[in-house]
Amino acid sequence: MADQQEVSAWRPRVPGVVEVFHAHFTEYAYPMHVHDAWTLLIVDDGAVRYDLDRHEHGTPLDTVSLLPPHVAHNGSPATPDGFRKRVVYLDSSRLGEDLIGAAVDTPDLRDPLLRQRVGRLHSALARPGDELEAESRLTLVGERLRDHLRRRTDVPVHRPDPVLARRLRELLDGRVVDGVRLEEAARLLQAHPAHLVRAFSGAYGIAPHQYLMSRRVGRARRLLLEGRAPGEVAAVTGFFDQAHLTRHFKKLVGVTPGRYRLSAR
User: Fold this and answer.
1) Alpha-carbon dihedral angle through residues 178, 182, 183, 184, given to the nearest 10 degrees
2) 183, 184, 185, 190: CA torsion to nearest 10
3) What pLDDT is attached to residue 68?
4) Which of 189, 231, 237, 239 could cross-link to 245 by cystine, CB 3.0-4.6 Å?
């Protein structure tokens, strides 16, 4: 069977993400090579066999693989129909080089929650305009990866922080249209990004990116009822484009912006 290849790659506007790469290969085998970034890999179909530091590893479906920078590895299909994979390449701002040794020792992490989070991260990275969601999800993924590599056996205690949660809500309320990056919010509020996300979610039962999108949809509803066109509404309420507005509007309201506008009395 001739090798079939399907690939897509892009660089999202998310701090710390060097590249996102999705691929489906039936026969292609990677030779030994290195990256200057961390390789965070999940396989959706099939499996990959690879050598890292002269030891063979594999990627069953419940595994998240984390390959460190500057360490040679290869890769080839471990199943007859090849493999379908999703990769995020991360720079050292997300994972420090002090973790390379631990990643060489245990590159394959069997953690269903981590794998679920990485999958949701990819979904957010594929949607222009959802950078705050992607950054929030990446922050929690990075935290769990570091816990694995440092072999933490204790369960971290996340204490409520209603004051910090309120300050973040006030920041989001003041930037409904312009938005704010998680990295910037953490700097302004002098808090770790992961603690910021957990404090807000614990206080309000909703993630910061969900709160921001809810506020934007609320503004969009009022403008649509005034008779303004969806494309115009998207531009003045902080959405990337009309398709971005439509996706979130339908998720929260149940109908498209155009249909909602026509329903006005």
Assistant:
1) 40
2) 90
3) 95
4) 239
Looking at the predicted structure, is the pLDDT value of residue 136 above 70? yes
Cβ(65)–Cβ(58) below 8 Å: no
> Which CATH class, in words, describes the domain spanning 214-262?
mainly alpha
Contact between 261 and 230 (Cβ < 8 Å): yes
DSSP state of 156: P
In three-state secondary structure terms, 163 is helix
> How is the chain split among helix, strand and coil, in percent rounded to 5?
45, 20, 35
Give me the pLDDT at residue 3, please: 56
Angstrom CA distances, 78 to 25, 46, 123, 176, 236, stand at 11, 7, 26, 48, 50
Residue 129 in tokens: 């305009």
Cα separation, 156 vs 194, in Å, equals: 12
40 burial type by CB count under 10 A (0-12 exposed, 13-18 middle, 19+ buried): buried
> Residue 154 and residue 71: Cα distance in Å, rounded?
30
How far is 47 from 182, CA to CA, in rounded Å? 34
73: which strand partners? 33, 52
Q: Do residues 209 and 179 lie in contact, with contact meaning Cβ atoms separated by under 8 Å?
A: no
CA distance 213 to 249: 9
For 69, 140, 189, the CA distances from 163, given in Å and listed in that order, are 39, 21, 11
pLDDT at 58 over 60: yes
User: In the chain, what is the straight-line distance between the N-terminal and C-terminal CA atoms, in Å?
Assistant: 61
Q: How far apart are CA 246 and CA 258, in angstroms?
A: 9
pLDDT, the chain, mean: 91
Looking at domain 5-109, does it have CATH number 3.40.1280.10?
Answer: no
